[in-house]
């Protein structure tokens, strides 16, 4: 593949797969498809990892809170993918110790204990330690800023953190390119080429030059995230939105804790206070958002909500200094009858041919950062079926470019110290 932005030269070929969206899932699809021998091209209208992928809580986890919704399958999927990422990206995905402070009565403690046991059972193949209990004295000795009124102790469990999601995304780009894919950033898909209910490619604007180029493809995969509905609006026969979009806000503050905390807000939602590259990351919110996806930002109410909840949990800490805020939009399955935080994080592959009679187009709705690799595998499986080809997925085995042996041994040594 050419390595320069020669759109005209690339457009001379017909691709098997044209991917719209250069976030974590999109670049994961490009890597998987290229590794299976599909002729693949990806378009991202901004820079890679511009949207939701760079604005998350940066946790690689099974989703402890999803147990409350009895979504054991989703939790198991996340825990399985967590272990895979520890293997293929040990230089980026690191174990992270979490504390859940215990307040309230015996039944609240019992509920948390049940959740801890289930989390351990669902992660039966994990390399991380099982949960344990710490009494009040131990907790306050380690975290003196934590509210001690009514504190009974804390449960300790492990998930993982990826401090730089952007780098994980770029390593997927590098790997995809190494396997023959073409990936273009600052390349905006402005139109889907459609004739007689068949999508056969895309029209793309080179945002850097203004040049318009048409690309032919046997299948177009829409992984536009919050922009998903915008991408397919002109070719759909149905007009109701496919996705429910919700806003998540984080605060970046001076470092306030030694370990990560999973906490319950006054409205019952779970939020986190997490050490992050020398700071604390506090979040997140979860509110419906249907405005300009490129103009999303934290509002005063978002900041005050998080500040008030964090101050309630850590009353001795100063919350007067906030370095900046991070605001992003999630693209979730369209569920109208439940509150935002209860909308499932599962993904579906929406076949526009089966649902609406538009051939050559599939869209991906929902999904989590943790599960991006497995979601990409599902997408490429579906694409291969449509293209009449078959090739095994190897992304769970082949490590990402930065995971060299020296780094791997160093990380293994660090994990051994955690287990001990």
CATH topology annotation of the domain at 7-52 and 166-242 and 343-389: FAD/NAD(P)-binding domain
Give the overall pLDDT as a whole number.
91
N-to-C terminal Cα separation, in Å?
48 Å
Strand content: 25-35%
CATH superfamily of the domain at 7-52 and 166-242 and 343-389: FAD/NAD(P)-binding domain
Number of strands: 18
Find the structural class using helix and strand composition: alpha+beta
Order of helices and strands: HEHEEHEHEHEHEEEEHEEEEEHEEHEHH
Rg from Cα: 22 Å
Quick one: CATH class of the domain at 7-52 and 166-242 and 343-389? Alpha Beta
Number of helices: 11
| CATH-defined architecture of the domain at 7-52 and 166-242 and 343-389 | 3-Layer(bba) Sandwich
Protein model, in words:
With 420 residues, the chain is of the alpha+beta class. Among the domains are: 7-52 and 166-242 and 343-389, 3-Layer(bba) Sandwich (FAD/NAD(P)-binding domain); 243-333, D-Amino Acid Oxidase, subunit A, domain 2 (D-Amino Acid Oxidase, Chain A, domain 2), CATH 3.30.9. The chain has helices at 7-10, 24-35, 72-88, 106-122, 136-142, 165-178, 228-232, 300-313, 352-356, 372-387, 405-419, and strands spanning 14-20, 40-44, 59-60, 93-102, 132-135, 153-162, 182-185, 187-195, 198-206, 212-222, 243-254, 260-264, 270-276, 279-283, 287-288, 324-333, 347-351, 361-366. The strands form two sheets. Strands 3, 4, 5, 6, 11, 12, 13, 14, 15 and 16 form a ten-stranded mixed beta sheet that branches. Helix 2 runs parallel beside helix 6 (165-178) and helix 2 packs across helix 10 (372-387). The chain is elongated. The termini are far apart.
């Amino acid at each position: 593949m050419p390595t320069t932005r020669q759109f005209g030269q690339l457009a001379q070929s017909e691709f098997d797969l044209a991917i719209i969206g250069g976030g974590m899932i999109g670049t994961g699809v490009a890597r998987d498809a290229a590794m299976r021998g599909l002729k693949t091209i990806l378009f991202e209208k901004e820079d890679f990892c511009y949207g939701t992928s760079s604005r998350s809580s940066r946790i690689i986890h099974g989703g402890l809170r999803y147990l409350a919704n009895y979504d054991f399958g989703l939790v198991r999927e996340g825990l399985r993918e967590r272990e895979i990422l520890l293997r293929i990206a040990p230089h980026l995905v690191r174990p992270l110790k979490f504390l859940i402070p215990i307040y309230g009565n015996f039944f609240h403690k019992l509920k948390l204990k049940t959740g801890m046991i289930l989390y351990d059972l669902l992660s039966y193949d994990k390399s991380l330690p099982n949960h344990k209990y710490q009494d009040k004295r131990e907790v306050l000795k380690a975290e003196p800023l934590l509210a001690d009124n009514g504190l009974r102790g804390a449960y300790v469990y492990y998930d993982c953190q990826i401090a730089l999601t952007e780098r994980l995304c770029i390593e997927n780009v590098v790997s995809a390119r190494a396997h023959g894919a073409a990936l273009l950033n600052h390349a905006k898909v402005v139109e889907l080429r459609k004739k007689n209910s068949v999508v056969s490619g895309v029209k793309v604007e080179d945002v850097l030059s203004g040049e318009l180029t048409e690309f032919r493809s046997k299948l177009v995969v829409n992984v536009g995230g919050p922009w998903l509905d915008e991408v397919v609006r002109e070719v759909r026969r149905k007009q109701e939105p496919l996705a429910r979009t919700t806003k998540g806000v984080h605060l970046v503050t001076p470092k306030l804790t030694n370990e990560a905390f999973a906490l319950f807000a006054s409205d019952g939602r779970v939020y986190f206070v997490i050490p992050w590259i020398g700071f604390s990351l506090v979040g997140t919110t979860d509110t419906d958002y249907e405005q300009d996806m490129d103009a999303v930002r934290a509002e005063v109410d978002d900041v005050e909500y998080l500040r008030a909840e964090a101050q309630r949990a850590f009353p001795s800490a100063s919350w007067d200094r906030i370095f900046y805020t991070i605001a992003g939009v999630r693209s979730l399955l369209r569920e109208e009858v439940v509150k935002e935080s209860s909308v499932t994080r599962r993904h579906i592959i929406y076949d526009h041919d089966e649902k609406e009679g538009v051939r050559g187009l599939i869209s991906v709705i929902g999904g989590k950062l943790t599960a991006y690799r497995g979601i990409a595998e599902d997408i490429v499986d579906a694409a291969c079926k449509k293209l009449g080809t078959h090739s095994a997925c190897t992304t769970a085995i082949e490590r990402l470019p930065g995971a060299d042996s020296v780094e791997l041994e160093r990380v293994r040594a660090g994990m051994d110290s955690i287990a001990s």
